[in-house]
Amino acid sequence: MAKTTKSSQQQSTISWGEYASIYLESIERTKLELRQIDWEMQMTLSEKQRLFGQNVTRLLAYIGQQDYSFTFGEALRTQEQADIYAKSGKGITHSLHIKKLAIDLNIFSPGGIFLTEVKDLEKFGKYWESLNTDNTWGGRWHLHPDSDHYQCNDNL
Questions:
Q1: How far is CA 82 from CA 26, 40, 154, in A?
Q2: Which residues pair with 151 in a beta bridge?
Q3: What is the CATH number of the domain that holds 148?
Q4: What is the pTM of this model?
Q5: Which regions of the chain are under pLDDT 70?
Q6: For residue 35, what are the CA distances in angstroms to 7, 31, 40?
Q7: pLDDT per position as a tens digit, 17-61
Q8: Structural domains of the chain, count
Q9: For residues 99 and 46, what is the distance between their CA atoms, to the nearest angstrom?
Q10: Are 82 and 51 a contacting pair, CB within 8 Å?
Q11: What residues make up the domain containing 145?
């Protein structure tokens, strides 16, 4: 018995054995993806920080490839500084900057204009979030959007 598939230009027939093989390969890919998710959920803070650093490197390269430039904003924040920011309404007490899992980037257009609007930085936020399911871009926050903020949720 064979399974018939149609494309816009030709009709081809594959055997059930070939179909089963393709199906089993997709199951194996899914298993690998699930193992990756399981591994990420069991990461230590140090492993998560290294993954975050790799993702930041990818984001910076992507920014450069788009002919934009950047300077670093805040990366590491002490608990004391987080408390000061929280009291002034500028931040939160449990910031991921404390765990070295967040960074603020000042991004400039190809013409050198400092970008602060969510709409102007959205492509970088989308790219950041595409790198890892734990990555979050601050421009997505509804209450207080923070368009220069990129973080990796710790889930630890």
A1: 45, 27, 17
A2: 102, 136
A3: 3.30.1380.10
A4: 0.72
A5: 1-12, 14, 19-21, 23, 28-41, 156
A6: 34, 6, 9
A7: 776 667 677 776 665 555 555 555 678 999 999 999 999 999 999
A8: 1
A9: 9
A10: no
A11: 45-152
